[in-house]
């Protein structure tokens, strides 16, 4: 409950000592009149209504960025000293193991089983948006993946220092498909900069 004062009109402050004495003699009657200007109102309920039992959660709107600041830095140049820095191969983890983990995570995101924001550290913003849209469509269509994604074969080629190109054969949605990606060493980690699913 909250009390909201109502504006009083035509009330003058008491400044004369005789008037103060007269006000004191009136006593509780003046207090009661002053208290009559307060109304007690209930606090409004601002909580949204709960979802009915068994209802499906609404799919996020793909036009908006969820769970992060909607700032796009792709058109901005990076600072040479404090921006992303390329990393040499000896300072990076094994590309074969990382490629297998990231391929599985990307396919789970495209099936709507994993939020794309979990991969923001390892994929570029345009790839994240592509796989996020695929995940939203999969959830809207209530598509069920035909088993867990499986990397059947994988080959890694390193054409330059800190660059790894990966070709893979995967089992995805009960089909055998080809996949290719390019990983670049950035700030001590592998960053996927190209992703193609055949």
Task: Tell me about this structure.
The chain contains four helices and six strands. The chain has 198 residues and is of the alpha+beta class. The protein has a domain of 104 residues: Nuclear Transport Factor 2, Chain: A. β3 and β4 form a beta hairpin. α3 crosses α4. The longest helix is centred in the middle third of the chain and has 16 residues. It is flat and about 85 Å long. The relative contact order is 0.13.
Set down the secondary structure blueprint.
Blueprint (H helix, E strand, L loop, with lengths): L1 E4 L11 H10 L1 H8 L2 E4 L53 H16 L14 H16 L9 E11 L2 E10 L2 E12 L2 E9 L1
Antiparallel strand pairs: 1-2, 3-4, 4-5, 5-6
Helix pairs in contact: 3-4
| Range of helix content | 25-40%
Arithmetic mean pLDDT: 77
Along the chain, the helix and strand elements come as EHHEHHEEEE
- Runs with pLDDT <50, length 5+? none
The major pleated sheet works out as: 4 strands, antiparallel
Going by CATH, the architecture of the domain at 94-197 would be Roll
By DSSP (H or I, 4+ residues per run), the number of helices equals: 4
Shape: flat
Observed structural traits:
198 residues; alpha+beta; Nuclear Transport Factor 2, Chain: A; four-stranded antiparallel β-sheet; 4 helices; 6 strands
Summarize the structure.
The chain has 198 residues and is α+β, with helices and mostly antiparallel strands. The chain is built from four helices and six strands; from the N terminus they run E-H-H-E-H-H-E-E-E-E.
């Amino acid at each position: 409950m909250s009390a909201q004062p109502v504006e009083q009109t035509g009330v003058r402050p008491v400044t004369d000592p005789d008037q103060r004495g007269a006000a004191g003699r009136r006593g509780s009657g003046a207090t009661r009149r002053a208290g009559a200007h307060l109304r007690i109102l209930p606090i409004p309920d601002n909580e949204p209504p709960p979802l009915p039992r068994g209802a499906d959660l609404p799919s996020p709107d793909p036009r908006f960025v969820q769970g992060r600041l909607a700032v796009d830095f792709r058109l901005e140049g990076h600072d040479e000293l404090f921006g992303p820095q390329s990393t040499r191969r000896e300072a990076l983890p094994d590309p074969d193991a990382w490629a297998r983990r990231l391929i599985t995570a990307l396919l789970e995101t495209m099936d709507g089983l994993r939020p794309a924001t979990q991969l923001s550290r390892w994929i570029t913003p345009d790839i994240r948006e592509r796989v996020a849209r695929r995940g939203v469509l999969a959830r809207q269509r209530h598509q069920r993946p035909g088993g867990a994604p499986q990397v059947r074969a994988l080959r890694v080629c390193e054409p330059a220092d800190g660059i790894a190109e990966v070709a893979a054969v995967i089992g995805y949605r009960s089909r055998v498909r080809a996949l290719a990606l390019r990983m670049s060493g950035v700030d001590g980690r592998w960053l996927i900069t190209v992703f193609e699913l055949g």
